[in-house]
Write a structure and sequence with these properties.
The complex is a heterodimer of chains A (117) and B (111).
Chain A: E1 5-7, E2 10-13, E3 19-24, E4 31-38, E5 42-50, E6 53-57, E7 64-68, E8 74-78, E9 87-94, E10 107-108, E11 112-116
Parallel strand pairs in A: 2-11
Antiparallel strand pairs in A: 1-3, 3-8, 4-5, 4-9, 5-6, 7-8, 9-10, 9-11
Chain B: E1 4-7, E2 10-14, E3 19-25, E4 32-38, E5 45-51, E6 56-59, E7 62-67, E8 72-77, E9 86-92, E10 100-101, E11 105-110
Parallel strand pairs in B: 2-11
Antiparallel strand pairs in B: 1-3, 3-8, 4-5, 4-9, 6-7, 7-8, 9-10, 9-11
Classes of the chains: A mainly beta (117), B mainly beta (111).
């Protein structure tokens, strides 16, 4: 158990809908990362937050957004869902941002499996 | 940007034998190279990492080697056991940039 929690574990929804995925980082970790894992794309970095502020963006679609709250939990919002958005979504956390002491090691949560029908 | 290629995509070895997975990266400024193990239904778990100022690192049956000149790094697992069966991912990062992952290797240990 990494200490990172994600809810829900599974989510089934229809095209055009909007969903929210939730992540609680390990106790003491200030950085949160979101990744998408699909069969043909591997693990793709979406976005990173540090202490409530966005720090880095990856291949995140405009239909997707995220935020980190004062209690450090994070939510990933996916809207206007398409069939191709079906994937595993992982949250990871680290003590600090990459490049700073403690920022290298990322601990991953168990993931949320999103199925868009 | 960084690009990481990982080989092989699948690997099957007999229990007790060694397994080697290789990755190449494109950005010579990359300085951090972790390896993750992902078991079925779980998130990736860091098993070992290496920084660019080190050529080799060992942790019990697992070792990672880095060749900065050739821009490749490898994961070595010795005395493989059934519980080593999983998907393994390499990754590379330059400074404060994002982690870029390889496509993964599905390792199967045959009893």
């Amino acid at each position: 158990d990494s200490g990172v929690t994600q809810t829900p574990k599974h989510l089934i929804t229809a095209t055009g809908q909007r969903v929210t995925l939730r992540c609680s980082p390990r106790s003491g970790d200030l950085s949160v990362y979101w990744y998408q894992q699909s069969l043909d794309q591997g693990l793709q970095f979406l976005i990173q937050y540090y202490n409530g502020e966005e720090r880095a963006k990856g291949n995140i679609l405009e239909r997707f957004s995220a935020q980190q709250f004062p209690d450090l939990h994070s939510e990933l919002n996916l809207s206007s869902l398409e069939l191709g958005d079906s994937a595993l979504y992982f949250c990871a956390s680290s003590v600090a941002p990459p490049g700073l002491a403690g920022g290298d090691t990322q601990y991953f949560g168990p993931g949320t499996r999103l199925t868009v029908l | 940007g960084e690009n990481v290629e990982q080989h092989p995509s699948t690997l099957s070895v007999q229990e007790g034998d060694s397994a080697v997975i290789k990755c190449t990266y494109s950005d010579s400024a990359s300085n951090y190279f972790p390896w993750y193990k992902q078991e079925l239904g779980k998130g990736p778990q860091l098993i070992i990492d290496i920084r660019s100022n080190v050529g080799e690192k060992k942790d019990q049956r697992i070792a990672v080697t880095l060749n900065k000149t050739a821009k490749h790094f490898s994961l070595h697992i010795t005395e493989t056991q059934p519980e080593d069966s999983a998907v393994y991912f390499c990754a590379a990062r330059q400074g404060a940039q994002k982690l870029v992952f390889g496509q993964g290797t599905r390792l199967t240990i045959n009893p």
